[in-house]
Amino acid sequence: MVYVPIRFEIDPITLASAAISADWEVCVGRGLSRESTLHPVAIDPSFIAGGSWHLDLAAPDAWGMSVPRDHTPVRASTLTAVVVPGLAFDRQGHRLGRGAGVYDRFLSTLPPETLRIGLVPGALLVDELPTDAHDVRMHAIATEQGIVLPR
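User: That's the sequence. What structure does it adopt?
Assistant: C-alpha cells below.
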C-alpha cells in the first residue's frame, strides 16, 4: 500500500509503478468518514500510467485525499507492506503526522508482520519525536540516503 501525496510528502509513484510492473497488487488508503480507519482500494495501472498520478480518475475521500474513483477494495489483512507518509520520523520509528491519527488507527488494525515503512526526506529524520500511547512505530524508514532500521 502506498499513498497519493499531498503537500510536502515524498511522491511514491516510482515505487508504485515498479511494484505494478512486477505484477504486485498496489493500493492506497481511502477514508470513508473522518472517524473511520483507512480502507485499502486497488490502484489500476492506468491510475499511474506514464509516471504520473491521473487524478482525473480520482475522487476525494472523507479526508480530501485523492483516491481511485472505482474504489475496488483490498483486504487490509492481505497487505505485505504499507508505505506511510509523515512530516518527520525519528530513529526509533515514530512518526509525526498531521494530528488526526488516521494512519495510527489503520496501522493498529494490521497483522504485526505487515511491514510498516516510513518515507521521508533525510533532513526530516530526527533523533527523537514526542509520542503518544496510540502511536504505531515503523519497521523501517526510507530516505534518499538509504534505509534506517529503528533502534
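Helices lie at 13-21, 102-107.
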